[in-house]
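Fold tokens
===========
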Amino acid sequence: MPRLLVTPLSSLPDVLKTHGPSHLVSLLSPEHMIATPDGFPLSAHLKLGVNDIIDPAAGTAPPLREHMDELLTFARSWDASAPMVIHCWAGISRSMASAFAILCDRMGPNREIQIARAMRQRAPHAQPNRLLVQHADDVLGRGGRMVMALNSMGPPLRMEEGVTTEFPLVGL
């Protein structure tokens, strides 16, 4: 079944071993970026060095529109015959925002609220990074609907680290 898997960094080795993904997205601070795991094709591992901040003036290495362009281009090259794994440090913010963007792109416009609510149901801990989602909204021409859909999710369950969560590309 075509699916995205969102996981924290600490669970990445087990997820790679258990699910055999074809593509991997790492969203980590530039100074903490990981090497491509042994045996994983370099061309199938997208590394985005971004900090988990929502105000570009609040720190270094904020998510930029260019990062979202890279992510969506990479995701569009994925044929979904094997899972795509997306991870950040905790599996709560940057990785969930990236999964939300990919799901909105794959499922088409006017499904943003449905996707956000499905994300909340599957991942009570999800708190998608709003700056990444804003960039996705701009890139996909959604007129603010993706950002507004985050509000429909309600508050997240507070956790220091998320759990591996599966998002099917069909039947969400």
